[in-house]
Amino acid sequence: MIWSVGPLVIALLAALAVLLMASRRLRTYAFTVWVFVFVAASMLYPAAFGTWFGADLKILIVPLIQVIMFGMGTTLSLADFGRVLAMPWPVLVGFVLQFSVMPCVGFALATAFGFEPEIAAGVVLIGSCPGGVASNVMAYLARANVALSVTMTACSTLVSPLMTPLMMKLLAGQYVPVDFWNMMLEICNMILVPLLAGLGANRVLYGRQPRWRRVSVLGGVGTISLAAAAAAGWLGAGYLTGIRGGLVVGFLMFGVVVLAKLVVDVLLHGPERWMDKALPFVSMFGICFIIGIITARSAESLRTVGLALVAAAILHNGLGYLFGYWGARLCRLSEWDCRTVAIEVGLQNGGMASALAMNTLQSVKAALAPAVFGPWMNVSASVLATWWRRRPPKSWVVTRPACRSA
User: Fold this and answer.
1) Residue 24 pLDDT class (50, 70, 90 cuts)
2) Do residues 159 and 182 share a domain?
3) What is the DSSP-derived secondary structure letter of residue 75?
4) How do beta strands 55-56 and 51-52 pair?
5) d(Cα 70, Cα 202) in Å, to the nearest integer?
6) Are 30 and 91 part of one and the same domain?
């Protein structure tokens, strides 16, 4: 019976997701529905997310995260980091709350629910990860301080190679073995290197200098970047071995983006900011596919602890908003900034947590928490953003840089 109904369920969910994407008011919920599409497909047809042509699909998790982080980098500029000097106190408050509240809440919930060690480690892991790019969109929808949100996301991501392994070592080391240096190197390879490559691509994509519209410059830079990707793949060794994958993806994506600008912008005179429309779809598909791969390998465990994980996700996320907001209030931040900090603290990079669980902790069960927490975070953040949007702070103003960053 379930095999006959399964395709219909998947098709209806996919149709709903497409309808939501077409709605300006409801499109923020489309990602969550797409997650349900992939979860349903992976639960009903796990073999489809198992191996292709003899290769285990889990090898795609890290490259997909690298592509997503490259996309995040293209939304950033040096000005986003420079704003730390303009508003150091809100950034510091958000940073401290991000890497203290969420890991500790994750540890407390893992203990309270009595999860088995690997699942408990996954709950701590999702709490120890930095904010994701979705928080910037939610901050914009909530009419919060988008510039602060972008800066906090960028800064927390940059320090994640240190802070995430540290919090895991301190809080999750009792559940599973945590190799601090190996996790640190893996985060650099998976997050930091592609992010910096995306930051460079932002300069090429949106730079106003005339040289970034010359055929010779774009063609030369793109070709050199592709050659560097090939060299990193063939010659990466010694000290570069640990970050070779990040270098390959970073150079490859940089080269593809530069050559795409050459074709779309310069030769074809195509639409402006086309990358802003393309990369969100790539990121959405990447996260959904990762969740499908994880779900297919842990369907039995998910049936056993699924409801408990959902409850833990609701509590973890809700307490993140609560402590983030009131922690910022205690530090005398404006209402505008308090809402921003609450969103940043409450939302984590679930894709990063999933990849670390699978690749560094070598545990499918540890990846369950990020797979469950991620969709709920998007649902709750959309509801909270809508609530705050209808009740804007009196001093709220829209700035062009904020809208660009979103």
Assistant:
1) confident
2) yes
3) T
4) antiparallel
5) 10
6) no
